């Protein structure tokens, strides 16, 4: 299990960052590595973002130095979404099987979490979001047919999309973590356009189902001082609460959004028009 610590930045400092610094601080480029768990511990709302790819051996979720815990979920909760082959996750002796685009919420207090792939030739790709938790909520497996669904955008504006809200309080209680999958319709390339902010929570995106020779251009920064990051399949990006989070793809794609912070209301957004962007 590998981890990295990322510090938070002031938006005024961010204005001076070049492309290399932006990628270093906000891009999580090695999320899914066969046979490994890789996570980034960001000080934006203390969200942990990462991935687990079990192959021929199980992978156990372990604490690391910065969390100062006897076990990973001692004071944390965890959201998991599978974007690979079928997975088996064993939690304190209870087994959960996750198929493609299925989710699992684990509350604080679970001691032993072990990831396995049912077929090592088609390994699971488990995307992980973990936030601090001060109350224990029940574990729950969540499938796409259990999601709260919202259809937004239009073909005329190239942002027609379906939002599948998987780990949200309308489906299962959580302390902070909220996660879901947004799927773009054929011919649409823009997500979350027009953009928005939510100062009461940060967000992270994982882009997937991106064809091999295509790319994602993710936009971030304050609305009047935007920057961009070019991204590939199964890479993640950290979005501070002061930053917009929007993207366009050179081909079809989907993405997982995850949030942590003060407010769990999905509609808590401060909207901006395209004409306000700089």
UniProtKB/TrEMBL annotation:
Co-factor binding details: Binds 1 zinc ion per subunit.
Isomerase in keyword set: yes
Enzyme Commission numbers on file: 5.3.1.17
One Pfam family here: KduI
Cross-referenced SUPFAM superfamilies: RmlC-like cupins
Reaction it catalyzes: 5-dehydro-4-deoxy-D-glucuronate = 3-deoxy-D-glycero-2,5-hexodiulosonate
Pathway per the UniProt entry: Glycan metabolism; pectin degradation; 2-dehydro-3-deoxy-D-gluconate from pectin: step 4/5
InterPro entries: KduI, KduI/IolB_isomerase, KduI_N, RmlC-like_jellyroll, RmlC_Cupin_sf
Cofactor(s) this protein requires: Zn(2+)
Organism superkingdom: Bacteria
GO BP terms: D-galacturonate catabolic process; D-glucuronate catabolic process; pectin catabolic process
NCBIfam families documented for this protein: PRK00924.1
HAMAP family per UniProt: KduI (MF_00687)
Main function: Catalyzes the isomerization of 5-dehydro-4-deoxy-D-glucuronate to 3-deoxy-D-glycero-2,5-hexodiulosonate.
Protein's name according to its UniProt entry: 4-deoxy-L-threo-5-hexosulose-uronate ketol-isomerase
Provenance organism: Marinilabilia rubra
């Amino acid at each position: 299990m590998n981890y990295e610590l990322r510090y938070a930045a002031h938006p005024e400092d961010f204005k001076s960052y070049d492309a290399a610094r932006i990628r270093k601080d906000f891009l999580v480029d090695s999320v899914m590595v066969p046979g490994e768990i890789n996570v980034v511990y960001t000080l934006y709302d203390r969200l942990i973002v990462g991935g687990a790819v079990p192959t021929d051996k199980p992978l156990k979720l372990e604490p690391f130095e910065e969390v100062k815990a006897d076990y990973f979920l001692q004071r944390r909760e965890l959201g998991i979404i599978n974007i690979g082959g079928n997975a088996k996750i064993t939690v304190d002796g209870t087994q959960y099987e996750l198929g493609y685009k299925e989710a699992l919420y684990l509350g604080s207090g679970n001691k032993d979490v072990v990831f396995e792939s049912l077929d090592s030739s088609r390994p699971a790709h488990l995307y992980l979001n973990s936030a601090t938790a001060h109350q224990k909520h029940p574990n729950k497996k969540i499938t796409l047919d259990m999601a709260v669904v919202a259809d937004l955008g239009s073909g005329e504006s190239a942002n027609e999309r379906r939002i599948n809200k998987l780990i949200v309080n309308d489906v299962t209680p959580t302390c902070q973590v909220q996660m879901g999958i947004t799927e773009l319709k054929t011919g649409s390339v823009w997500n979350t356009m027009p953009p928005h902010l939510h100062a009461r929570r940060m967000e992270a995106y994982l882009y997937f189902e991106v064809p091999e020779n295509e790319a994602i251009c993710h936009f971030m920064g304050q609305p009047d001082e935007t920057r961009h990051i070019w991204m590939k399949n199964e890479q993640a990006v950290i979005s501070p609460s002061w930053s917009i989070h929007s993207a366009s793809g050179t081909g079809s794609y989907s993405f997982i959004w995850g949030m942590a912070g003060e407010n769990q209301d999905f509609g808590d957004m401060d909207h901006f028009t395209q004409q306000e962007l700089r």
